[in-house]
Amino acid sequence: MFEKNQQNVRKISQLVLGFCTVVFFVWFLSGQFAKAAQDGRDASKKLEMRQIEQAIILSELLYGEYPVNRNNPDWCEIGVRYGDRVCLYELTRDGFMGALPVSPDDHPYLYIDGGGAAVIATVFDDPDQIPQDQGCSINGFDAWCLKIRK
Question: Most buried residue, 14, 69, 109, 125, by CB count within 10 Å?
Fold first, then answer.
């Protein structure tokens, strides 16, 4: 009987150890998938920011001035209505972009102009994604800013 109890304890301990191993690997892999998803969102944001930058440059070349900031003097959120106009709607209306991009996370794309320059910005969940020479601060958050100068 003692031998049978010892075998049961051994089987149960092996099952518990196997269960803990599986839980650990599931936890580890889910963290890797979350990191990969975040990296994908950040890459998407970088691409969309560059597309907005190119559209603003083309608009400035054609019209001789940057698109109007609809929330002047503060940042306007791209694609959001301010009064009777949408921030950077001109880019889609005039064919520089097919549609205004929507950020894949909770941090929108922002726009401001003035002083001979235009700036588009966004915040990343991982501040390490911000290139050193293109960092700025928006309302206390570290952001990635693309400055466009004439």
Answer: 109
